[in-house]
Amino acid sequence: MDTIDNVFSVKGRKIAYFSMEIGLKNEIPTYSGGLGILAGDTIRASADLGLPLIAVTLINKRGYFIQKLDYAGRQSEHPHEWSPSDYMELLPEEVTVQIQNRDVKVRAWLYEHRSHTEETVPVIFLDTDVEANTPEDRQITYSLYGGNRKYRLEQEMVLGIGGVRMLKTLSCPITKYHMNEGHSSLLALELLHLNYMNQDKVKELCVFTTHTPVKSGHDIFSHELVLELIGNNDDINILKKYGGETELNMTLLGMNLSNYVNGVAKRHRQISEKMFPGYKFYSITNGVHSHTWVCPHFRKLYDKYLPGWANEPELLVRVRSIPDNEIWDAHRLAKKELIDHVNNECGTDMAYDILTIGFARRITEYKRPTFIFSDLNRLRKVNETGKIQLVFAGKAHPMDIQGKMFIEKIFGYIKELKGEIKIAFLENYNMDLSLKIVSGVDIWLNTPKKPLEASGTSGMKAAHNGVVNFSVLDGWWIEGCVEGVNGYSIGPKPDADKSAEQVEMMELDDLYNKLEYIMVPKYYHRKDEWINVMNNSIEMIAYYFNSHRMMHRYVTEAYL
Ligand SMILES: *Cc1c(COP(=O)(O)O)cnc(C)c1O
After folding, report:
1. Which of 69, 143, 438, 516 could cross-link to 462 by cystine, CB 3.0-4.6 Å?
2. Where are the domains of the chain?
3. pTM: predicted TM-score of the whole model, two decimal places
4. Which residue has the least CA distance to atom 3 on ligand 1?
5. Which residues line ligand 1 (CB under 6 A)?
6. Do 481 and 473 touch, CB atoms closer than 8 A?
């Protein structure tokens, strides 16, 4: 590919999509969890639909991290070195961002995501590992969510300010800047400068999506640190005006300079309005990229009976044209692959015909990864009604001590239940492993603490593969769940007037009772009814909770 091609591939791009993390594929480890996967799915759907979108992120040459677990479940983190030149091309363009009065040079790698529709979306990976930079500055784009507050702010300056400058240097005629979370909010500062401080003009240009009600998910920096790095009193005054007088809140900065601000599910919009009184939020419920998150066995089925489904996932509404036995066979093949993998990795000796429950996502407190172990005797009773086995996976952030302890606790339960319930924890959760687990289990379990799951997307992936959701009524599941028809809920409705203790008791009752009295018997004794719930998952969930529908909404509501 020469530079002429580069010009063609970025020329005419009108929507700039900024994200600190992007999950394009396993080999490009610049993502940590749902936020990055969503960014990847946004890019994949935009390419399918031929949208003039260009994405901007950081190269993170040491990725997030490789997770290793010892015999007791203690996590250690190892740099995930990878080689950008295997997948993308270094562009000749270079821009400069001033950090602490140093001119930090920023280069860009161009990755082209190509859709099966032959359309492409370019992704710009910013890189400060340039000879002219100091050794320290060369490392700014090494580690996703690594380092201290200073390192994070440097990364966000490169992403937001450097990103806008790079797009300008590449002559992209951008009409919308979409901030996927507050990590890129400094782009609005740069846009103010480019537009002679015309805030209305900047607001017209910007779209902001908030992704979490969890406090630590909102980046906050002291003005002291901001002044140290930005070193310019005029900028500090601007940032105080838009991002908070006492400290720089990147969510406020992004929201105050965007005309369109949204949450990622209907419930999340309500929660966000409570968190930020006086701000207007829209909501666009997340979706997943259907083709990416359907396993090969189901892809084959959908290709045969619902041709065109990949670029028109609405067609999955006609899943009933596929005979039940073929749905079940595809599921059995996916399950066999997972069980074989689990047995190879963990030596667990799991069986193909046992009801398998999956739980895999970032391991952190609000996700309550050990919730199913709250009452071991009730769990044993479920297992006496009909055998169950459990598959876990997930990384804890290196600084999340509590998250790491959850993994050790799960390892403890594995030992404690040995000889009774087979449980495996798979190392190093990533996109490939995710597809294996969400398609290979029978039940997808999600037990977040309400109302902290803004949307969640892994359950949508499960539904795409006919896997049955069993989840707390939070995030997307409030919109998706039809009780007993396309899955099962855990705990009361979101607006129920209950204390935290009452809610948890009801959640535990539902968790164990529905497994023991409804799901286990249906799975083992009324297979036709079970397959009916699988079909309903595809028909009622996959056809709607996909990123094609999501991007149609972003285009008509936010971008145009
Ligand atoms: C889909 C996905 C997630 C998001 O999972 P949630 O349960 O929605 O939080 C996280 N990590 C990976 C690797 C994924 O594929």
Report:
1. 438
2. 3-220+258-287+551-559, 296-544
3. 0.97
4. 34
5. 33-34, 37, 361-362, 429-431, 434, 456-458, 461
6. yes
